[in-house]
Specification:
Elements: H1 2-5, H2 20-32, H3 34-52, H4 54-69
């Protein structure tokens, strides 16, 4: 579920579960670069708005269940 929501380096970071060094390096980038941190957060917010606003969500539901609802 998470990889479908995160575009690595654009609106968040994906780090393999056991990669402690990778996680530490990504956290350091976020601590050190406030501008990038803000841009990442804004991109994440926009993706969630685009993906989960009512119009998008209703289209997705209609694609999935539309055939079953036709009577």
């Amino acid at each position: 579920a998470i990889p479908e929501l995160i575009d690595n380096g654009i609106n968040g970071y994906l780090v393999p579960f056991s990669d402690i060094e990778g996680l530490l390096s990504r956290v350091k980038v976020l601590i050190d670069d406030a501008e990038f941190r803000h841009a990442l957060g804004m991109a994440a917010k926009q993706k969630m708005i685009d993906k989960f606003r009512f119009e998008s969500f209703s289209k997705t539901i209609n694609k999935i269940y539309g055939g079953y609802l036709d009577v």
